[in-house]
Amino acid sequence: MNRYLIPKFPLGLCCMTIGISTLVEQHNLPVAEYLCRHQSGDWGDLDHDDKQANELALHDGTRIFSAYHFQPSSELKIKLWVITEADRSVTTVLLPDEY
User: Fold this and answer.
1) Exposed end of the chain (fewer CB within 10 Å): N or C?
2) Cβ distance 54 to 64 under 8 Å?
3) Does residue 92 lie within any of the structural domains?
4) For residues 6 and 1, what is the distance between their CA atoms, to the nearest angstrom?
5) Number of compact structural domains in the chain
6) The predicted structure's pLDDT at residue 5
7) What local confidence, expressed as pLDDT, does residue 2 receive?
């Protein structure tokens, strides 16, 4: 079974920023893939401490944060963030400069 199909927490309402929407249109950014990774506990490109904080957040109900890199071409590598609010009501996919 694909580990990305096993959700660890609810995402709530899923939103994306203008920057992410532009990447979807211009480079076919697979937003659903990153949401599935985030929800399944694949925190992406975080350091050990941030990954541990997410694991704790699964139990104490604080914010969950993931970071990933999307590389639509060999010349372009884009960092994106996925943030689920502490109350699990909203998950947003955004670029770091849109925070």
Assistant:
1) N
2) yes
3) yes
4) 9
5) 1
6) 72
7) 53
Strands 13-16 and 90-94: parallel
Is residue 4 in a domain?
A: no
Structural domain of 72: 11-98
The phi and psi torsions of 45 (rounded to 5 degrees) equal -95, 55
CA torsion through residues 11, 3, 22, 78, sign: positive
Question: Does residue 2 form part of some domain?
Answer: no
**pTM for this entry:** 0.93
Provide Rg for the chain, Cα atoms. 13
Task: Tell me if 3 is assigned to some domain.
Answer: no
| Ordered alpha helix ranges (H), the chain | 18-27, 31-39, 48-60
pLDDT of res. 1: 42
Q: Average pLDDT per run of 10 along the chain, which is 99 residues long?
A: 75 98 97 96 97 97 97 94 98 97
Q: How far apart are CA 68 and CA 38, in angstroms?
A: 9
